[in-house]
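Section 5.1 Outputs to date
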Amino acid sequence: MSQLEQMYQQVIMDHARAVHGRGLKDPGLVSVGESFQVNPTCGDEVRMRVGLDGERIASVSWEGQGCSISQASVSVLHELVEGETLEEADRIIEAFRALMQAKGEGLDEEREDLLGDATAFVGVGKYPARIKCALLGWMALKDAIIQAGRDTDHD
């Protein structure tokens, strides 16, 4: 295993051991969305709650269980998108999806810079069964943002 792969593995394990954003919070905002996602292949699950303040993600919190890849991925997601604009969050989500589809080859420098610690998941793209684990929280985020948008339409 190369030094880079060891470093990436360490980032994933660090986030899996000490996750960020765990514990559903009531963001106390007008626009709140929640999504529950399950990976039926392995049983990983996540419930994500997102609070929007206009065009900004003010709060991201979650509960879940599963493998170290799914838990670490949600932890990194929390670090990357909380406080960002919806537009920037969408760019980050799409960059992570592209990373998973790159089959371990990585991305251009701009998208890797955008992803920060999430680039540690580059090797996951080599294992199709693990891609769903890494993407689980990201799908929940996208859905929770949509749900938050729907909430504002019904008020």
